[in-house]
Each structure stands twice: as structure tokens, then as C-alpha cells.
Design goal:
Blueprint: H1 17-35, E1 42-43, H2 45-48, H3 60-73, E2 79-80, H4 87-93
Parallel strand pairs: 1-2
Length: 102
């Protein structure tokens, strides 16, 4: 059974590496990474949504809708990869979106 997450309006998911970057800067984040004893994971689902798994047809608006629930489900992720080589091509040719406004 799929796991679902409901966030209230204005409710934010747990802090993660983005907040470390905001608070400590690039060097502070690099120091934090070096201190970690476990493997740091990057999820590529958002990138793959534009390249392979979901046949390059996921619109930016749909990705925005799942961003907070994704962060809530996996606050321990090191990062989420968002961009790949086909991102601009897909936005322009298939989704009829301006890739510079994404």
C-alpha cells in the first residue's frame, strides 16, 4: 500500500540539507557532509520524470505539488536531483512550457 502524507496549509516539512546550506553557507554544508558517518542519498525521481520513467510528460506544476510531500516523506535525503540533459527540450517541445521560467 502506498504511503501518503498530508501537510496542512503553510506547514513545512522537517529541516534538511537546504536549511544547513542556508544557515551555514557552502563551506558549512561541506563540513557537515564530511562529518557524516553514513551514506548520503540523492533521489533522482524528479529528474527521471523528464527523461525516462514517466515518459517526459510531467509538468512543472505537478512537480511543485509533490515537492513538500516528498520532503516530508524523506527528510533524511541529502538531495533531490531536479535537472538532466532533457529538461529544457522536454519543457519546450512536449510540455509547451518556458524552460527559463521553471
Amino acid at each position: 500500500k502506498p504511503q501518503t502524507v498530508t501537510l496542512g496549509i503553510g506547514e513545512k516539512p522537517a529541516s534538511g540539507t537546504k536549511q544547513i546550506l542556508d544557515e551555514r553557507g557552502a563551506e558549512g554544508l561541506a563540513d557537515w557532509v564530511k562529518e557524516q558517518k553514513s551514506v548520503l542519498l540523492t533521489d533522482t525521481t524528479f529528474r527521471d520524470a523528464h527523461q525516462s520513467l514517466l515518459a517526459t510528460r510531467i509538468r512543472s506544476n505537478d512537480l511543485k505539488k509533490i515537492a513538500n510531500p516528498t520532503a516530508a516523506l524523506w527528510p533524511e535525503l541529502f538531495s533531490l536531483e531536479m535537472w538532466g540533459g532533457a529538461t529544457f527540450d522536454v519543457a519546450y517541445r512536449f510540455l509547451k512550457e518556458d524552460p527559463w521560467k521553471r
